[in-house]
Design goal:
Number of helices: 14
Helix content: 40-55%
CATH architecture of the largest domain: 3-Layer(aba) Sandwich
Number of strands: 14
Radius of gyration: 23 Å
Shape: globular
Number of domains: 3
CATH class of the largest domain: Alpha Beta
Order of helices and strands: HEHHEHEHEHEHHEEEEHEEEHEHHHHE
Oligomer: single chain
Strand content: 15-25%
Strand order of the largest sheet: 2-1-3-4-5
Length: about 425
């Protein structure tokens, strides 16, 4: 079996990201993932945290999600002090614009208000100890599902084209700000639009990457958003390389993969770095599957390389068993095959989704803490000054609970013991 092919050109996607000389995420960083209701869904933000906990773990990393439904850039700028900075983030991502465009054609007022707010966010982040800020553009809307009238029939419509032009203009403002301010830009709009066009060309216009309202993506579209931000954060995708020599019956592996032994073509491993795992199958055409979109976005090729190299085979082919069983030629195996791309069911899958569920719960609690306590703290203190200490204690207790939830997610990402079986065949 050949590794899952990605036949389309990657030129547009590759041009959306800068190459970083040093890792943007460093030990003991606190990463703030910020945005509107698309972030508050805790889908793409959970995939980002999944990846950073399991696929590319960094010592001491802390991830916090700050999504708020219905928000625009000016509203986020206004709540930075109360909601975000108490966590002392050192690195942050944001994606705004969906609400800032006001769901209509672009105007000078929209452009000015958005530019001023986004520039203010960059400046405020910098002044409050954020070392690295990734300014993400808004995503595009899905032209088949987007409509302001919920009773309108599903079909491509002019309103979606108009609003995508507005969102594209806002993305251009973000790109310009990032260049002027010397910060990282994530072209969420371009990546999503390119992926959506190719997915719809292959699967039909009713294939959804923007959710059933055209705005809020399900798992498939959220994986594309996570891809855009993980690439902008400088993630390399080098999860593992496992090299086997059948002639000497030995195996070696890269960091995060410990070879515990090899016997009769069976490699025993203990892994602290997971491949990213996907829901559904590669043939899925619904928005509730992350696997189905892999044909249209190079997530596995650029972010999820769990490579097996087999040398010394004396037969033309070999069967590889790793949860599933697939057959490869000796030439393919000597060049290396990406197990993460081919084996949707693998030894990491169950634990990966266990951690993912914990991450989603953690991010849900973060949103409740932020909206229920932290944003109202100043109002409560002004209204009830005698209760100021009690309010602080209440907020601190909530932050401690959130921290404990995050640490439990990290603990769930425990080492996995597994085997790769190699059976020579003709």
């Amino acid at each position: 079996m050949k590794s899952h092919a990605f036949a389309c050109s990657l030129t547009l996607l590759a041009s959306s990201f800068a190459v970083h000389a040093n890792p943007l995420i460093q030990p003991n960083d606190t990463l703030a993932i910020c945005g509107d209701s698309i972030t508050a869904e805790h889908l793409y933000s959970a995939y980002m945290e999944d990846y950073l906990l399991m696929c590319a773990p960094t010592n001491g990393l802390n991830v916090v999600q700050f999504g708020w439904s219905g928000e625009g850039a000016p509203q986020f700028l206004a709540r930075l002090d109360t909601d975000v900075f108490p966590y002392k983030p050192t690195i942050a991502t944001s994606t705004y614009g969906m609400n800032d465009g006001r769901y209509g054609p672009m105007t000078d007022d929209i452009a000015t208000t958005y530019r001023n707010a986004q520039t203010g966010i960059v400046d405020t982040m910098r002044k409050n100890g954020v070392r690295t800020f990734v300014l993400g553009s808004p995503k595009c809307v899905d032209p088949f599902y987007y409509r302001r009238d919920p009773n309108a029939p599903l079909a491509d419509n002019p309103a979606a084209d108009v609003y995508n032009q507005t969102l594209g203009s806002l993305a251009g403002i973000d790109k310009d700000i990032a260049a002027k301010e010397g910060i990282v830009y994530a072209d969420v709009y371009g990546v999503m639009l390119d992926t959506m066009k190719r997915a719809k060309a292959a699967n039909g216009n009713n294939y959804s990457l923007g959710g059933l309202d055209g705005v809020h993506p399900g798992p498939s579209g959220s994986l594309v958003l996570a891809y855009a931000f993980l690439k902008a954060l400088g993630c390399t995708g080098d999860i593992a390389t496992i090299t086997v020599d059948m002639g000497t019956n030995t195996a070696t592996a890269t960091k995060g993969q410990e070879v515990e032994g090899m016997k009769d073509g069976v490699v025993s491993l203990k892994s602290t770095r997971y491949p990213f795992c996907f829901s559904g199958s590669l043939d899925d055409k619904g928005d509730d599957s992350t696997a189905g979109v892999l044909k249209f976005v190079p997530f596995n090729q650029e972010l999820n390389r769990y490579i097996l190299i087999v040398n010394g085979l004396k037969t033309p082919k070999a069967k590889i068993t790793w949860g599933e069983t697939h057959e490869y030629t000796a030439d393919q195996l000597s060049k290396g095959v990406n197990l993460a791309a081919d084996f949707m069911v693998n030894p990491f899958r169950d634990q990966f989704f266990h951690v993912h569920q914990a991450v989603q719960f953690q991010q849900q609690q973060e949103m409740m803490l932020m909206q229920g306590s932290m944003s109202g703290a100043k109002i409560y203190k002004n209204t009830f000054p005698a209760a100021s200490a009690a309010i602080d204690q209440w907020i601190n207790s909530g932050m401690a609970l959130r921290s404990a939830l995050y640490q439990s997610c990290a603990a769930f990402a425990a080492p996995i013991e597994h085997t790769i079986k190699i059976e020579p065949s003709n």
